[in-house]
Each structure stands twice: as C-alpha cells, then as structure tokens.
Write a structure and sequence with these properties.
It is a single chain. The chain is α/β, with parallel strands linked by helices and 589 residues long. Helices cover 45% and strands 12% of the residues. The chain has 21 helices and 17 strands. Strand 16 and strand 17 form a beta hairpin. The chain is globular and about 85 Å long. 44% of the residues are buried. The structure holds pyridoxal-5'-phosphate (PLP).
Length: 589
Amino acid sequence: MNPNYFFYLAVALGVIYIFNRLRIRLQLSRAKHPSLRGHSKWSRRISKLLPFFDYTQNLFFCSDGAPHKITEQRKQAFERLKQKTQHQNSKSLAQSAALENSISDVKFTSNYRVPFPYRTDLPSEFRLGTMVDETKGSKIRDIDGNWRFDLSGSYGVNVFGYDFYKQCMQEGFNLTNELGPALGPYHPLITENVEFIKQVSGLDEVSFHMSGTEAVMQAVRLARYHTKKTHLVRFCGAYHGWWDGVQPGIGNRRKTNDVYTLADLSEATIKVLETRNDIACLLINPLQAFHPNADSFSDSTLITSDRKTAFDKEAYAKWLGRLQAVCNRRNIILIFDEVFVGFRLGMRGAQEYFNIQADLVTYGKTLGGGMPVGVLAGRDDLMKRYRENQPADVSFARGTFNSHPAIMGSMNAFIRRIQTPEIQAIYQSAEQTWNNRVALFNERMFDKGLPIKLSNMHSILTLHYLQPSRYNWMLQFYLRSAGIELSWLGTGRFIMSFSFTDEEFAEVIECFVVAASQMQDDGWWWNSPHLTNKAIKRQFIYDMLVTKFPILNKCLKSPLISTEMRKKSRPLSSVNDTNVNSNTIKKVS
Ligand SMILES: Cc1ncc(COP(=O)(O)O)c(C=O)c1O
C-alpha cells in the first residue's frame, strides 16, 4: 500500500480527534453559566481588578442623586437611628467592638453587612453583631435585655424552635454523661441513630463527621475513589461548605482544575454529563431550586432592587429526575447535599420533597439536635473505604470527634422527637403554613404601600425590594431596632423556625411595617424617574471605572451623581488617599 495513504489516514484521524476534543470543550463552555459565577478563573481574575471606592461624608446620603432636602432628612434620621441603637444595645456593641480585632469572623461580617462603598462611614452601631445570652421559642435576647424575633435560624440549625434544641442538648448530655468524652468505642445510642438515618435516607451505610463541610468532603472523595474519575460537577451559585474543593473561584488561590461549575436547569449541562468521561459526581444543593444559578442573597451585595427568585417545585423536581437518569446511565454519583434543607423540607428532606433517590446524601446542622455534626449516608458499595482485591488502595478518613457521645445523645433526642405525632403533623402542614404567612405578609405590605415583598421556598424566605433604590440595605438596621434579629446576610435570607405561631408571625409582620414605614418616612426610598435599576448599576460601574482610570472622569458622564453634588460633598484637602474624580470617592492604594 502506498505509504502516502498511511500519512493521509493519520492526518485525517488527527483532525477528527482534534475536532472532537474541540467539540467537547465547546460543549463544556456552553454548559457554564454566562455570568462570572459560572467562570471560576475569570471571576478570580476580574475580582483582582475591581478597585475599592467609597461614598464618604455627604455622598453617603445622596449617592442616588437625591436632592438636598432628602439628604438632610436622611442624615438626621440616620443620627436618630444610631442614637437609638446605641441606647438599646450599648453593652452588646461594646463587647462586639472589642472582639472585632480578635475574631476574624467578626471583622469580616462587620465589614460585609452593607455594599462596600458605604462601609467606611458606617458607624460601628451598624457594623457590629449582637451578643446574646438567652433564647426562648422563636426569640433571642441580647445582653442588654432586648428580646427579638429570631429570623436568622442559627444558620439553618433552628428548625423547631430553640426550646426544642435546648431539650435535645440537655437530654443528650444526660444520656451520655457517664461515658464522657470516650472516643473510638461507641456509645450504644449510635445504633438507633444509624438505623434512623438509613431509613430516612433510603441508603445502606452512614459515616459521622463534625461539620457539613467535612461530610461533603467525604462524599466527594468516595465518589472519586469508587468511580476512578477525577471531576466534580457543581451548580453555579451553590454553597457546599467552605472547603476549597467545592469553592473554585474568588478567594480560592488553589487551582481547582477538577471542578466544573455548570449552569442549573440547562440542556447544555445534560449534554456535558452525557458526553464527558471524567465526571465522578454531581453535587446538588437542593436549595438552588429557590434561586437557580445565583448565590444566596445578602445585603452586602444589595446594590439595587433586582433580587430574583424562581421557585417552581414541579419543574425543579423534573430537572432533578433528568439529572438522576443521566447520572445512572453514565456512572456519575449523584450527591444530594442536604446539610441545609435536610429535616426541614420534610423528615426525609429534599429526597422526599422532590421525590428523588440520590446515591450519597449529606446531612448536618439540625440533625445534631443543637450540637455540631456532619453525616454522610450512602450506598454500601460507595461507602466502602477499601478494595477487596487491592488491599493497599484504601480511602482513609477519620476525625477525632466523629461520633462524640454527647452528639450521639442529642442526635438521638432529636430523632426520637421528630418521629412523634406532633412533629409529624407540623411537617405535614409546614409548607402550606409558610406559603400562607408569606401571602399575608405581602398583602399587609401592599395595603400599607410599602415597597417590599417576600418570596419563599418552604420556610426559607427572602425579601424583595419593589422600587429602585441604593439604600435598601438600611432596612436591616430599622428591623433590628423594631425587634427583629437577622444574620449578617441581613434581609437576604430569613430562615424560619416552625416554632413561630400565627400570632407571633403577625407580630413579625407588624415589626416590618414599623421598620419599613420609618425607613420610607426618613427618605431612604426617595425616587425619581432617573433612578432605575439600570442607572444604579451604571453609576456603580462608572464609579469603579473612574477609580481605576481617573482620566475617564473627563470623558464619561456620571449617571446619577452630578459634579455639583460631588463638589459639595467634601473638600479635597480632607482626603488623604489618592483622590479620584470627586471629592468623596477615594481610592485605596
Ligand atoms: C448545603 C450546605 N452544605 C454544606 C454546608 C457546610 O456545613 P458546615 O457549615 O456545618 O460546615 C452548608 C452550610 O451552610 C450548607 O448550607
């Protein structure tokens, strides 16, 4: 045969191979969400380019272009609210301030309660968290003696009200007190716990860990070990704990080349799962049904009024069904991360709620009955940490405090309680209860002409703002003053406990009415035809650009803040850092 044929054949095969590789790579690119959240590397690069700028002094009060009268009204209201907060929370604020320089978490959350351009001039009264010393039912008391309705939900742990967990913790401690901290051997209560978890998860084996993050780490590690494949698929915006293996992108300097962040509810994602051979597991946080492809909402990113939720239970259940089918076909391990929603959406959690059976399921938070825990449940073939025919190839995982007797005790108390007819009845009605309460809330706000509205997935709520504003984040401080305790996410997420009675929720609604009416009267929701969500975003981008490239100040028009306004705001000489276009937007070098 002519040797040229071999040459042409080799070239043709090479071209086909390269085209195929390109096609698969293109498929992967198309399955990523078009936002930066879907592009870990780019988000990391771009985050490094974004400069800090801040609205100091007067511009703090008129960054939306509000006229002088409104600015003055806001200033006075701000001072009043500050005084009131100082008066209400003096001990709490003093102790919190002392901790700010010693606990990195406090420093971080202090700085990320509001969008960053406002944080420099935000007084400490509005930066700091609360110091608390007692809880009762749905309420929490700060060290100054103020009782507030707790909408923070203790990061999701608090499903049934604080008294429930206090009882579980006490009972758990009593049950295991005699054993103390003996680790390695097990307290016999573990058997009942394991049997129950197997039953609710529909899976064969269980492992105990100290946090949800660890349970997820173990799930992913086992999926890779058993499939002998390398890559993890997660969905854009989904949180799975703070391990860098599930947080590619901003803030993670480790190269996470083994993670694909794909778009939720996307045909392109199905194609990637169908065709790639390197995917070991698909990790799903079912909470994403509430806001597919978006991070959980937080007031620190509340730049304008366009939070979007898109909860459609049926459509999401169908989508999960399709994912389950493709995972089965392609030997991809389906992991449900139920650390947040497990034992909240129902006793069998998201699996029951969406009618899906996963291969591995992680639990945490509330399952510890108020104590720290992470749990992994899985099929027996996937949970195995060794291979029968390769004795040296083990997947070793341990943790000193796993299965700690006191935690097994409080978990046991939790498990027994949630099986009682009273709790079962609560589970049956919880979704409808929260849908009704959200509807009531919205009716009341509408009747009062207040520009806010709730949306929910079951008992997880978020607040929407109905008119464009740069100051929505102020509401969290009015709410605190009116008797509502929030997490540092502010109005981004309310995690409701089932202990709220209708009467208590009616009181919560009235707290919102008081807070939002005051905020409205104080001028923060001033509006003008120029103040659109688009214009606010343009102003934000403008401020960023002129901070980075001051020359642009001469050729670009500022969308909302007039030069006049900037000039009035602060004399140049009082700014120490590099001054940019205005007197009040400063760049930190
Ligand atoms: C879905 C999900 N997975 C994992 C975690 C991490 O759990 P932990 O904070 O206990 O490590 C969280 C925490 O919020 C979560 O919501």
